[in-house]
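go over my protein:
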Amino acid sequence: MGSTAGSTTPPLQGCIAVVTGASRGAGRGIAVELGAAGATVYVTGRSTRTEPAPNYDELLALSGLSTLPGTIDETAEAVTREGGQGIAVRCDHTRDEDVAQLFDRVQREAGRLDLLVNNAWGGHESFNGVFDAPFWEHPIEHWDTMFDRGVRNHLLASRHAAPMLVRQRRGLVVTTTFWDRDRYLRGNLYYDLAKAAMNRLAFAMAQELRPHGVTSLALSPGWMRTEFVLAGHKTDEAHWQERPALARTESPRYLGRAVAALAADPNVLQKTGRVHRVADLAREYGFTDVDGRQVPAFELDQT
């Protein structure tokens, strides 16, 4: 499938989804594409129109931005414009009580949950512009942001979603990650560890959820043109092709189309426990990125 918008019967009509960390970037791309497929999407995160998420000052300065791009309100409105129903819910995914209240609300309002996308990620909060350095030169704060405010976010949301999915004996948990066939993500040991932990989390949850008919898998995009990537290259989505350095990039909606395809697949349980690359799923399911390309999988330079 290319875009799901315009279908006579949206493939995810009636689907109830939660997408965490959906103010911008990957989460926004996923939420919007689920909306285009007809889903009801609870769009969660900390950034609202009245109050942006804290702790992004260093990344904003490095990106040349004065304000944090994106809010859950804007994403929810985009979901609705695409044909779904977007519901913005402010949630700090590091806070147990916030996460419990989120899933209580979903149960109360929708009565079920079909899809959880674990995407809330704290790693940007300690980003200092250094992409390639030995581990002893990276700040130990990376552990706190990538594990305590990254991996733990995914586990906590899954912990609250699992009882709902198990009762239904169906459902899908998608963990966004990065993976290149178990190659070392050279230059940031903390990032490598965090992504490996997320991959293992998706695998381990699959072992316990599969007997209940529930799928858990990890999904790896390539190099995405997020708001911060575009800002760092002094361009925007309308002009990125003028930057040769961005030739290998893909839009966040390419990832979103992969999630929508997985959620619509009645045989998705066969994919449980594994890490899947967006590019591979594009070939399997037949979808494209927003510019009509099937962007090849991003592979790390091992030289």
